[in-house]
Design the sequence.
């Protein structure tokens, strides 16, 4: 999911910014590239803290929404969209016992071996479940 961030650039080339939809989440850097990198780290850390404290992660609004509703606040900088992998913030893992056909389990294991981003069978099953839940609305 993309979160809009507003970045202000100072005369010395340093940059800092914030996420309008995420209260208290700020970032900075010696350049705009550094600030963007820090923005990704800052929002991940912020959402991890929210998830650990079982608090809701805010839903982003569009840049256009913010500009229309408070244009004066967004002058002298630029917008960026920061991608956040929301799968990481689903809360604590809970062990469950499921039964799957052997062939399907073998296919899952092959997928995990070929795409390490799944990390495990559980990671693959969780990712597939999230995709189906998004489709279901």
Sequence:
């Amino acid at each position: 999911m993309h979160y809009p961030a507003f970045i202000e650039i100072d005369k010395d080339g340093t940059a800092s910014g914030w996420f309008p939809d995420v209260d208290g989440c700020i970032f900075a850097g010696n350049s705009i590239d550094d600030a963007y990198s820090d923005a990704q780290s800052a929002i991940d850390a912020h959402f991890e803290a929210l998830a650990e404290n079982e608090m809701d992660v805010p839903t982003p609004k569009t840049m256009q929404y913010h500009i229309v509703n408070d244009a004066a606040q967004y002058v002298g900088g630029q917008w960026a969209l920061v991608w956040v992998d929301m799968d990481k913030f689903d809360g604590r893992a809970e062990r469950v016992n499921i039964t799957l056909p052997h062939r399907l389990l073998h296919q899952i294991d092959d997928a995990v071996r070929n795409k390490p981003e799944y990390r495990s069978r559980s990671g693959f099953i969780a990712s597939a479940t999230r995709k189906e839940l998004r489709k279901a609305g």
